[in-house]
Automatic annotation (TrEMBL):
Sequence intervals crossing the membrane: 12-31, 64-83, 95-113, 142-159, 165-192, 204-223, 349-371, 392-408, 414-434
Biological process, per Gene Ontology: lipopolysaccharide biosynthetic process
Protein's cellular compartments: Cell membrane
Main localization (coarse): membrane
Protein name: Glycosyltransferase RgtA/B/C/D-like domain-containing protein
Length: 448
């Protein structure tokens, strides 16, 4: 008993030390590496400042719902709590959420792995450069990952389903309000629950319970959008625009392109004039125009759509850490005094290390998903499953995120919420390799 208590004490001390190291690295980054707000991140900040000033969800004087409202709402409320709208204050919110996510991930790893392996996975999370660097970015990535991690932890928990399902509905709803594509997550939950229980009744109850709570949580925002835009917009109205920008005759990069570079028909332009705007503007009432045009192109060009999908997945998971340089340290890159050979060498070395890490995690993650997908597909139609519940959850989350990026848009920063799943997959693969290697060594040592 004494030895067990000593091991538990060492285990908890190790976790505490790793948490402190992760916290200090994140804090060091946000106070020493300068960056500026650009693109989506500038938009989030403007909306959060307007919330702080009691102007609601507005941007440049107009009500908006172009993106998920989750992050600007939380950031705006945090500004109110802090009493200021300093960018550094927003970074402190990220620091709080990032360390909280670390703690949640520790509990997940503790359920998935033996203690030594859990420590290794937790150390990866603490030291992963992406998880450190994004504390400087006022974007939805850290908040969304926090909600996703909590969702997975609740899935792995064993308490009463009467509490578990509503809690899942609540967490999935707020994750969806942060990243709208997560509204489709109940479909993943349905497959997971079916493979776990093999009961139509239990699966239907789970999905209905989760979806009902989700609907209740999302309804106030959908009602606000109905009043403001006179249209049914559950979360945001950028889905059709993003789908069109990434699926057309002129897109070859698998990512965002300036729509002014596209040649569109006069008929398509006329539809925008009827809506009181011009292409490529994208107010709420043009959402269906973009979505219909994108769907028409996809159905007419399935091979080209497949090519773009593959490019998007590659851009997201196999393009290194281009996003870390682009978004989290862009002020350094824009400083002309920085461009000495020595500084550029440092930056290239830093990028090389992160790129290698991302390539390794993505490779093991894809391998893990492909291997387990076979068991999932066969398990759907068999009386009993040939794959464990936890492997199912991790695999389907990786596949779900890949599928989203395959259809919509791909860029390195979108892999952020998938990184901890990739870490789980990598650690699980390494654990299997080491175990089989040790078994092989043991067999070699047996007397012949």
């Amino acid at each position: 008993m004494k030895k067990i208590l000593q091991l538990e004490k060492k285990y908890l001390i190790s976790i505490l030390v790793i948490t402190v190291i992760g916290l200090l690295l994140r804090y060091y980054w946000i106070i020493t590496i300068p960056n500026v707000l650009e693109s989506d991140f500038e938009g989030y900040y403007i909306i959060a400042v307007n919330i702080f000033n009691n102007l609601g969800f507005t941007q440049w004087g107009n009500p908006v719902a172009f993106q998920g409202m989750g992050y600007p709402l939380v950031l705006g409320l945090f500004f109110k709590l802090a009493g200021n709208t300093d960018v550094l204050t927003g970074k402190y919110l990220n620091l709080l959420l990032s360390v909280s996510t670390m703690v949640v991930l520790f509990f997940i790893f503790n359920k998935l792995f033996v203690k030594k392996t859990a420590i290794a996975a937790y150390l990866l999370v603490a030291l992963l450069p992406n998880y450190i660097a994004y504390n400087s970015v006022l974007g939805s990535e850290i908040l969304f990952t926090f909600f996703v991690a909590l969702t997975v932890l609740v899935q792995f928990s064993e308490f009463d389903n009467r509490l578990r399902y509503p809690l899942l509905g609540f967490l999935i709803a707020f994750a969806a309000l942060t990243k709208p594509y997560f509204i489709a997550y109940p479909a993943i939950l349905a497959v997971v629950e079916w493979l776990r229980s093999k009961s139509v009744k239990e699966t239907v109850i789970a999905v209905l319970a989760v979806s009902s709570v989700m609907a209740v949580c999302i309804a106030p925002w959908a009602y606000r959008n109905w009043i403001v835009f006179n249209a049914f917009i559950p979360i945001s109205y950028n889905g059709g625009y993003v789908l069109y920008i990434n699926n057309n005759d002129y897109n070859y990069v698998g990512g965002w392109m300036d729509p002014n570079e596209f040649q569109v028909s006069e008929e398509f332009k006329a539809k925008f004039v009827e809506k009181g705007t011009v292409f490529p503007e994208h107010p709420a009432n043009t959402e269906k125009l973009y979505k219909d045009e994108a769907k028409k192109w996809i159905f007419a060009h399935p091979i080209e759509f497949f090519k773009l999908g593959v490019i998007r997945v590659k851009n997201t998971f196999f393009n290194g850490a281009q996003d870390v340089e682009k978004w989290t340290m862009n002020e350094i890159i824009k400083d002309k005094d920085y461009f000495s050979a020595q500084n550029l060498r440092k930056l290239s070395f830093f990028r090389a290390i992160i790129d290698i890490i991302i390539y390794i995690l993505s490779s093991f993650g894809l391998f893990y998903a492909i291997v387990n997908l076979k068991h999932i597909l066969t398990g759907i139609f068999q009386r009993s499953s040939t794959i464990g519940y936890r492997e199912t959850v991790v695999t389907l989350n990786i596949i779900f995120l890949m599928a989203v990026f395959f259809v919509t848009e791909g860029q390195p920063r979108y892999n952020f919420p998938a990184l901890f799943f990739l870490i789980i997959a990598t650690v699980a693969c390494m654990e299997t390799i080491i175990r089989n290697f040790n078994v092989g060594i043991s067999f070699q040592r047996l007397p012949r």
